[in-house]
Amino acid sequence: MRAEPALRGEAVRVSPGDRGKRLRSWLTNPVAVLGLVTTAVLVVLVVMPLIGLIGTTLGTDGLDAWQKVLSGRLAPNLFWEPLANSLVIGSATAIGSVLIGSFMAWLVVMTDAPFRKTIAVLATLPFALPSFALALAWETVFRNDLIGGRVGLLQDLGLAVPDWLAWGTVPISATLIAHYYSLTFTLVAAGLATVNGSLTEAGEMAGATRARVARSIALPIVLPSIISGAMLAFAEGVSNFAAPALLGLPVRFQTLSTRLYGAIATGETERGFVLALLLIAIAAMVLFASTRVVGGRRSYATITGKGGRRSAISLDRWRWPLTLLAGLIALATTILPGLVLLMSSFARRTNSLTGGFTLHFWIGESDPGFAQGQRGILLNPTVIEAIWTTIGLGLAVAVCATTLGLAIGYVITRLKRPKFLSNALGILSFLPFLFPGVALGAAFIALFGRPIGPLPALYGTFAILVIAGAAYTLPFASQSGRAAVGQIATDLEEAATMTGAGLGRRMVRVVIPLAARGLLAGAVLVFVKMIRDLSLVVLLVTPATPLLSVMTYRYASEGFAQFATAITVLIAVISISATLLARRLESAAQPWSEAT
Amino acid sequence: MNVAEPGIVIEDLRKSFEGFNAVRGVDISVPQGAFLVLVGPSGCGKTTMLRMLAGLEQPTGGQIRFGDRTVATATGGSIAPGRRDAGLVFQSYALWPHMTVQANIEWPLKVAKQPSGRRKARVREVLELLGIAQLASRYPGEISGGQQQRVAIGRMIAPAPSVLLFDEPLSNLDAKLRVETRSELVRIHRATGATSVYVTHDQVEAMTMATHVALMRDGVVEQFGSPDDLLSDPASSFVATFIGTPPANVIPAVVSGGVARSGGKAIASLPPSVPTGPIDLMYRAESLRLAPGPAEGVLAAEFAESTPLAGRFLVSASVGGKRLSVIADDHPRVLAGDRIWIGFPGQPDGLFDSATGAKVLLEWAAGSPL
Prior knowledge:
Chain B: One of its GO terms (molecular function) is ATP binding. The complex is a heterodimer. By secondary structure, chain A is mostly helical.
């Protein structure tokens, strides 16, 4: 019988002589060595940038910046107001995402609503779209003449759009909810799917009503995923850069992320680093609170074991109204903004339905009458270069992060001793989650902005983008690595150990094939996250390494709305194709699981 | 079986998991070719023992030898699982779901770097031996539990290991298949000539398959011997009540003046050497009788159930909350909860210390029927 932790009584006493022996046994254990190497890599990726940030803010200029940001004359403007804005947006994003995401998840997983599969697919799409896609679409429709320049569709049609609907908290929160409900949907749907049919049936057999079963059995099982969904949405909302940059900055509505970006972009590096640390501290507090609440309730479904059949909740006369509502939400956050962007990229006159349409912004040759003589994006060599750089970056980061994630997941789930290694890996791989993209970008500038020993300065190279991307996506990659390895019964690997297969061979022939589905899904998530990311790369990109998301942002801020929307459509197409391709690959990668 | 040739020797084997002592000093030695069954209730340490034999766990004390090779010691120098010349069938079978039956069985041979031709021949041989040749190209997910089990065995015996390890291999099979597979496993064991160690919580499996049985409890071996030893001469009341179909009855009694009383009724007279005080009496089911009514040496019992058994009936009833089994010629023809009477016609089949459960050895008077 394997000892369960609960059975463990008295502690083992270790004599000093045993320590040396133990160390030797660790160093001869390949899994422990793998753990050590992985930890070292994570230290470079995660700890050193943080140290770089902190170190810089402890110099004379840095301490001065702390004082200015927190208590100086400009402090309200620099920190406190952006903080308040960030918190309001974060809370709104969390509440909205949880309400909408949970509703959709419940409808899709638990009920007999029609078109459940379609709704499920649509509800996962917004997360594959860049968050600036929705902000751009919003702007295309609702922009008013508060700051002059072009106006949106509605105003163009002669409808007055109030300022609160065009700029600031409401549009930023709305676009973030439309983006992040997709995340809570995925988490809650996964949580609901683990509510085994036999669990609820047992409750019903005991005579409990459907409502009672939902409250006392289903809810407690799903609650951890709802809470983590809320906390994630909050953290993302607080630190998001693209939406406030597009819908807030033009009217001087600042959040911590835009302040941080502004500070570094204008050379106030120390001030920017101080803001980055404060932003990290806030994210850390939220996520710490969420792990305290959720703590220890995590559970993995296993590959073996019989799943119970679940009987769907019958919605009766609510069937169509609820389906319609969910369908509308799904359409309004995916197809509709997609169409708006697509149409806007064809509009001859910016954001106007009445000015006629043209393909010029896609495939037009240089014409002084259009966009200051710039060619359409598909003929623009810089854009073409950016497409390849972006895809290359996505692939490189996906490969690096997934490999790291596999190593981390393997060590955490398989290494029994020394325990501190797997604990350290767990914490380190989670840490980048606390780094809002802009802050992490700042940290990498702080660390790799100048040569370190024999290494040249990496700023402006493709390498720094890959390294920063791997660090940025590490929490996702390690989570999928952990889940993918964790669901492989240890028996399967021990059976290979019994035949004399070493670590490498077990990895290649047993672990990776069985984890392939999860790893691939994780890799696609990383790829998509990199393709559509703006916040991390906005500070790291130089003309030598053009990226699509940054080009969109530049075009949008410079008033070339059609170019911005066209490139956003391009990004969306790449992201969605990757996601669909991954679905195909997943089923092709594991033919044996079709059989059962 | 050549007794002089050592098969598996386990000396003072211990294993603790951060303070929890799963195995607390086990000594077992069986000859080459033996079929050793480790049996006991869940949590007794039998699976930990097996995992240490396999090399998947390191002992924290003692050592293990396979033949004349020391394969595991607490002080290091243990041989890796794959180099012990041992194979293991997991309780879950642990078939690799992404490999076909053929590939599952062939894999250990690949790891052992056998040439392709020899591998294929061996896989065919194993598939034939197990009667599953027609499944070669199927995936584990496409075959039944009983077939999966054969594949797991095939994978184990393909490299012809000299030690076969089984971790409750029959627990996932239905009752009928389990009985058939028992003899099948013994046949395979004989065919390979290997030494087998088999873990189970089912004493019937132990009694029917083993050449040697180690009954474990709380990390120690309660009794080690042949199935017949455990059945005819249980070393403790725990063994007596664990082994046998049905297991023996152990009835608490108090001795005074050479008479053992249970619930105030005198049920047996014991030799004068038995000390006065509490004692546990062992009666096999076949040593008890149903009595027609209350009498001297008869206890009232509450009838529970009656199972037909080879032309007779196994009657279960409880006396003072303790379940007793009696072999009777006829069904008592009463309903559950009704009163029946149980008689104790002879001497008890054994005596146990009521505090420690250990067997009480004593000199019976000459001519005593025990």
